[in-house]
Design brief:
With about 270 residues, this protein is mainly α. The chain is built from eleven helices and five strands, in the order αββααβββαααααααα. The chain has one domain.
């Protein structure tokens, strides 16, 4: 039986060597043991299972005015995302407002499955420009295939666990490790982003928002508001989106670079939804 697990482990290693590398939109090398297509499929299932109980409780899109505002901003951002990253045109983009006044969070799964919690709108009170920065940042994670990358890191960690189990000779533990590989890949959809991924989403997001006609200077005021939000603890958004120490400085520096995109879009006032 041990040979069976060793063969399985060797197959994973060969997979990682042959097809485990990719390049992000910013040119960064990424570990990709899990394909973007697999991550999109997993995210679609996760999105459905997440929304179903909330919809049953009337917690989805309960305020039509708020939903309309969010959808309008998202529509402009998605249009620009497809222009910048044509491979996203086939995605089944979706955005839902989850009614949870205490939750300050937003996310975008692989394939453009998005959500924003009402708590972010209530506690942060973002302007349209600031809300666009939140949503564009989330889209930045998606177009960079960060979900697939996180799933790949989780899988690589499980390969290490299997190695230890097999070396120790415990077939029972090796079997548990193999089962844990699939579980870790599924849970990776909800793992916090790395600081490298955050910097990438910041860079992509601020440009995407500017091209959609939203003031890039709002990126700085948004993160200032996030940092100032108090209560019993920091916003959930900050726990899943760790802040690089120089985030505000970087966004402030990027602002002038993005202003021409913003000015051009504002001057033309032509939007496609």
């Amino acid at each position: 039986m041990r040979n069976k697990y060793l063969l399985f482990l060797l197959s994973l290693i060969l997979l990682s060597l042959n097809s485990g590398c990719a390049t992000s939109p910013t040119g960064r090398n990424q570990l990709m043991l899990v394909s973007p297509e697999t991550a999109i499929s997993a995210s679609k299932e996760a999105y459905i299972s997440t929304m179903a109980p909330l919809r049953a409780k009337g917690k989805i899109d309960s305020d039509l005015i708020v939903t309309g505002r969010v959808q309008k901003i998202t529509g402009r951002l998605v249009h620009e995302a497809i222009e910048m990253y044509p491979y996203t045109e086939s995605w089944e983009w979706a955005i839902k407002v989850i009614d949870d006044p205490e939750m300050v969070n937003a996310w975008c799964m692989a394939g453009g499955k998005m959500a924003v919690y009402s708590g972010l709108l209530i506690k942060i009170e973002p302007t349209d420009d600031e809300l666009a920065q939140v949503l564009a940042h989330e889209i930045g994670h998606a177009v960079s295939h960060h979900t697939a990358e996180k799933m790949s890191v989780a899988m690589a960690s499980q390969v290490g666990l299997m190695t230890v189990a097999i070396v120790l000779g415990g077939e029972e533990y090796a079997g548990l490790a193999i089962a844990g590989t699939a579980a870790a890949a599924a849970l990776a959809v909800q793992l916090p982003n790395s600081r490298t991924a955050e910097e990438e989403a910041d860079r992509i997001g601020i440009e995407l928002a500017a091209r959609a006609g939203y003031d890039p200077r709002a990126a700085v005021t948004l993160w200032q508001k996030m940092g100032e939000t108090g209560g019993s603890g920091p916003p959930e958004f900050l726990s899943t989106h760790p802040s690089p120490t120089n985030r505000q400085e970087t966004l402030d520096r990027l602002g002038p670079e993005m202003m021409p995109y913003y000015t051009e879009k504002k001057n033309h006032l032509i939007y496609v939804f």
